Amino acid sequence: MSTAAAAQSWCFATVTPRSRSTVVASLASPSPSSSNSSSNLPAPFRPRLIRNTPVFAAPVAPAAMDAAVDRLKDGFSKFKTEVYDKKPELFEPLKAGQAPKYMVFSCADSRVCPSVTLGLEPGEAFTVRNIANMVPAYCKIKHAGVGSAIEYAVCALKVELIVVIGHSRCGGIKALLSLQDGAPDSFHFVEDWVRTGFPAKKKVQSEHGSLPFDDQCTILEKEAVNQSLENLKTYPFVKEGLANGTLKLVGGHYDFVSGKFDVWEA
Ligand SMILES: [Zn+2]
Q: What class of enzyme is it (predicted)?
């Protein structure tokens, strides 16, 4: 496998065909998935997140920009005529306000939009998407963005279920499992963010450290969800909702390779 192909196979930075020649991040070593056929690699194998750098994405051509914007306009036109105009019973009440039953945490990965995969209608789910669908523990200083969303969902919107959904081949989870203790960060934010799942990573490495990297990633995708569900309990309003029986926590995992969705109650 070429270095570029190896990087593309795991890197959490989405690399479009346009910018493949200036890959944002790559591996210091070949893909761990090829470790079985690469027994000559230094052991233990540990991919590192590095920049090839300097990072210069190719300039966006004006015609390509116009086409991209037109794609959005066309998408809305289709939504307007085929959905919005045909479902006034859905959209009219939403003009007055929202009363979603669910709060959903989902990865920012472009392949796993929960409204699409779970068929959630507008108004059904108050949604937060971030890298690796993580919920950090309560911290007013570091995590006001996530905390305010949870607080508003629970205290103002009175959601009934908070659902944290992981997914297959999650680049953020791969990055988390790849991080080496003490290694310098390559990005301003990314590594620090995925370290939110550090306890889950340590648990997986402790219990499944002998498995191939990709198998550990699959387990960590779900274990990180479990950790997020535990972290949710550090928010006082979540704790109160759970104690009162007005709130439930649910974990989920969407496997877009096999087309499966697992769900479990915390
Ligand atoms: Zn992901």
A: lyase
The Cα–Cα gap between 98 and 166 comes to: 25
Non-local CB neighbours of 175 within 8 Å, separated by 6+ positions: 12, 49, 132, 190, 191, 194
Are 227 and 128 found together in one domain?
A: yes
Spatial separation of the C-alpha atoms in residues 115 and 87, rounded to whole Å: 17
Binding-site residues for Zn(2+) sit at 107, 109, 167, 170
Taking only the tens place, the pLDDT of each residue in 60-99 is 999 999 999 999 999 999 999 999 999 999 999 999 999 9
128 lies in the same domain as 228: yes
Q: How many domains does the chain have?
A: 2
CATH code for the domain in which residue 184 is found: 3.40.1050.10
- Give distance in angstroms: CA of 191 to centre of ligand 1: 14
Could you tell me if residue 249 is inside a domain? yes
What's the pTM value of the predicted model, to 2 decimals?
A: 0.80
Instruction: Give the range of the structural domain holding residue 145, as residue numbers without chain letter.
Output: 90-265
